[in-house]
Amino acid sequence: MYKTLFTSALLSVSSVLLSQSFNKEKLDTYFSTLEKNNKFSGSVAITQDNKLIYTRSVGYSDIENKILNSDKTKYRIGSISKTFTAVLILKNFEEGKLKPDDKLSLFFPQIKNADQITISQLLQHRSGIHNITDDNSYMDYYQEPQSEAKLVDIITKAGSDFQPDSKYSYSNSGYILLTYILEKVNKKSYAELLKEKITKPLGLNSTYVGKKINSQNNEAYSYSPGNKKSAETDMSIPIGAGAVVSNPTDIVKFSNALFNGKLLNKESLEKMITVRDGYGYGLFTTQFNDLKGFGHSGGIDDFSSLFVYYNVGNVSFALDSNVSEGYGNNLIAKALLSAVYNKPYDIPEFKTYLADVNDFAKYIGTYASPTFPLKIVITTDNTSLKAQATGQSEFTLTPTDKNKFEFSQAGIKMEFYPDKKQFRLLQNGLDILFTKE
After folding, report:
1. How much is the pLDDT for 17?
2. 55: number of Cβ within 10 Å
């Protein structure tokens, strides 16, 4: 559920009519409402025809020192880094340094199926290489610096999940390897390549490969529930899979340059947006009824991010958040799009319901459904109710009424029936009944 938060939500935008009178005041009220109710902390930006038409920042980049988020705040953008990495690979295709069909064995023959895995498959998550960030052991080393040799060894030992090109399966490991391939071919660091090929030519002064967070450099910390400062991933690990730092204003500049032919030639861009199983070269496709967009989401530590481009109106938007729980990036995206495309949207209302924590015990257990592949475990820490699907991150459920809870960031609503030992889960049109085992 949580992993598909930004890539599978279908938003209702049924008209391509662009707003001729952009209602900035309503969006300001929308974000002020989120801020007042502690439902969002971060920044957003929208461009139309390459002109910046809206920016807004709310919340704190550094709660302890009371530093507010602003349009100068820089965030870890997680997997949006993959779009930058894919652009660098495509530039290498254009320069003749790499080819889409080049085999991984040219660089890392020790990896299983390396003689069958191509650069193209790595770009589209079709290599079969196991995603090391899914493993419990990842938590043992993610805060410590890792060398190329060490990470390649970890990836090699993790093996393969399926035959190359037989299906799609998201793998950070593949983009870590793409980063090392870029460095080997160009004899430069990823940080140098990013600056030379993308950020310097475009004037993206707030975009670079991150290091340890420095709030004095306008870099935001991320926070888990209770405003607890989150542990930091050491950026030597995700590199081109997730180590880039940026902000929405820079990201929309990058998006506009990419889709308006300022970074790649027409043939390369066409390759990038040619999707298989919903994924191109470092880009997801998102369908908003009659609007088709391309972009990427990101998540690292308790940061989350999203950018999407639409050719109708030449629109880009980006958002970065530095809290793990809130109103939900997909819901915020819907409001931003509605404002641009002249569609109605509501200012959210937040009602407080005080649940009796002593009642949480009756919900605890492992639940399953014959119509859903994952089990969901419900637990409590005696102050809140938690849910965790198989292989997914745990999240906190917010009570909304008797026996009713939500996780608004993912658009999840749950209603428990304690007497029947069941709950109903609603998300993105799904309505699934789970029963306690």
Report:
1. 52
2. 17
Q: How many other C-beta atoms lie within 10 A of the C-beta of residue 203?
A: 10
Q: For residue 4, what pLDDT is reported?
A: 35
Closest CA to 337 of 25, 8, 27: 27
DSSP characters over 235-288: TTTTGGGT-EEE-HHHHHHHHHHHHTTSSS-HHHHHHHT--BTTB-SS-EEEEE
In whole angstroms, what separates CA 223 from the centre of its chain?
A: 16
Measured distance CA(198)–CA(435) in Å, rounded: 51
* pLDDT tens per residue across span 147-184: 999 999 999 999 999 999 999 999 999 999 999 999 99
The token pair at 25 is 């005041």
How is residue 159 written in tokens? Answer: 């093996």
The whole-number pLDDT of residue 13 equals: 36
Tell whether the model's pLDDT for residue 60 goes beyond 70.
Answer: yes
In angstroms, the Cα distances linking 400 to 198, 355, 403 are 46, 8, 8
Q: What backbone phi and psi angles, to 5 degrees, belong to 400?
A: -120, -20
Rounded-to-integer distance, Cα 308 and Cα 47, Å: 11
Amino acid at 374: L
Query: Of 305-309, 349-353, 403-407, which range is least confident?
Result: 349-353
pTM of structure: 0.85
Torsion of CA 66, 72, 76, 77, to 10 degrees: 130
Alpha helices in 68-133 (DSSP H): 81-94, 119-123
Q: pLDDT tens across 321-371, in order?
A: 999 877 889 889 999 999 999 888 999 988 778 899 999 999 999 999 999
In angstroms, the CA 148 to CA 236 distance is: 9
Dihedrals φ, ψ of 35, to 5°? -65, -45
Architecture (CATH level 2) of domain 357-436: Beta Barrel (2.40)
Q: What number of CA atoms fall less than 13 Å from residue 293's CA on the CB side?
A: 32
- Look at residue 289 in the predicted model and tell me its pLDDT: 66
Quote the mean pLDDT of the chain.
Answer: 93
Residue that is written with structure tokens 């050719």 in the block: 311
**Residue ranges per structural domain of the chain:** 357-436
Is residue 55 within 8 A of residue 250, CB to CB? The reply is: no
Tokens of 1: 């559920």
Q: Which of 86, 9, 49 is nearest to 411 (CA)?
A: 9
Whose structure tokens read 């929208």? Answer: 46
